[in-house]
Write a structure and sequence with these properties.
61% of the residues lie in helices and 5% in strands. β1 (110-115) and β2 form a beta hairpin. It has helices at 2-33, 38-74, 77-85, 89-98, 106-109, 127-149, 156-177, 193-211, 234-243, 259-271; strands at 110-115, 118-121, 227-228, 286-287. It has 292 residues and is mostly helical. A two-stranded antiparallel sheet has the order 1-2. A two-stranded antiparallel sheet has the order 3-4. Among the domains are: 2-83; 193-287, Cytochrome Bc1 Complex, Chain D, domain 2.
Length: 292
């Protein structure tokens, strides 16, 4: 009777848990109607399925334990002693997968080797280890057939080349969508704060290595004065960024930046004139005075 009462108690608890899950699911459905994304709902659904599966497993284990308890109750003392002496299913499986030998057979398995009193048993490899080894052999054969014989799947190098080609195509499509109404001869400096901030971000991440964060110059020349090696107009600076300077560390950015980004960087460089940061390099190049 105690067992039955415990069973009823735990069954009631499980029913409460299931009702809570159903309430959660109902809440999730209403939340989905309120605007929650499909990915979130997918995670919630998988979570509910997992919880229900765990509950079903717990119930199954509990029912098995009840059946065992009823069976033991009906056994005689002799049958119960023999049942308890018998190893469990897990112990049998563990012994079979490890191929354990009883202690009584160690004398037969003992080898003649003796290293400073250390002896060795002639035990075979565990079946689970050999099973994994056979799986690796099968996997190697399948891998060889798929990737090298029939070539139905790309190797890492080919996959890398495909991804690079896809990225280049995406970049080309994005560049084709950009509408540019200027060229290097007709470009004008921008004064838009968003565009200048875009130019500043690129300058500080790429150009500051040679020109310093404040533009005062390091390995590259000072960009805050009026002296320029390759011209100080917006068009000249645009051309320098686009084409680079041969035989110097100033590389060409034409293949990596679209015209609008080059214009933004050039405009930000022009905005640095007259800031006179501390520790700036001395003037280098020819004086440039913009025309009125």
């Amino acid at each position: 009777m105690n067992i039955i009462r415990k069973f009823k108690h735990k069954t009631s608890a499980l029913m409460v848990a299931i009702l809570m899950l159903l309430g959660t699911k109902t809440y999730a459905q209403s939340a989905n109607g309120a605007g929650i994304g499909q990915d979130t709902m997918l995670y919630i659904t998988f979570g509910l399925v997992f919880l229900v599966s765990v509950l079903v497993l717990i119930v199954a284990i509990y029912v098995l334990q009840l059946l065992k308890a009823f069976i033991r109750k009906e056994m005689t003392a002799e049958q119960l002693a023999r049942y308890e002496a018998e190893p469990s299913w897990y112990a049998k499986l563990w012994a079979r997968w490890n191929d354990f030998k009883p202690m009584e057979e160690e004398e037969e398995l003992l080898l003649d080797h003796d290293y400073d009193g250390i002896k060795e048993l002639d035990n075979h490899l565990p079946p689970w280890w050999k099973g994994l080894f056979y799986v690796t052999i099968v996997y190697a054969v399948v891998y060889l057939l798929i990737f090298h014989v029939f070539k139905t799947a790309p190797l890492q190098e080919e996959r890398y080349e495909r991804e690079i080609a896809a990225a280049e195509a995406l970049k080309a499509n994005q560049a084709a969508d950009i509408v540019v109404d200027f060229d290097e001869n007709t470009v004008t400096a921008t004064t838009e704060s968003v565009e200048l901030a875009d130019g500043q971000k690129f300058f500080e991440s790429q150009c500051a290595v040679c020109h310093k964060q404040d533009g005062g110059g390091l390995a590259g020349p000072n960009l805050t004065d009026k002296y320029w090696k390759h011209g100080g107009s917006i068009s000249d600076i645009y051309k320098t960024i686009k084409n680079g300077v041969p035989n110097t560390a100033m590389m060409s950015w034409e293949n990596q930046l679209n015209p609008i980004r080059i214009r933004n960087v050039a405009s930000y460089v022009l905005s640095l004139q007259g800031t006179n940061p501390p520790g700036a390099l001395p003037p280098d190049g020819e004086l440039y005075e913009p025309e009125n």
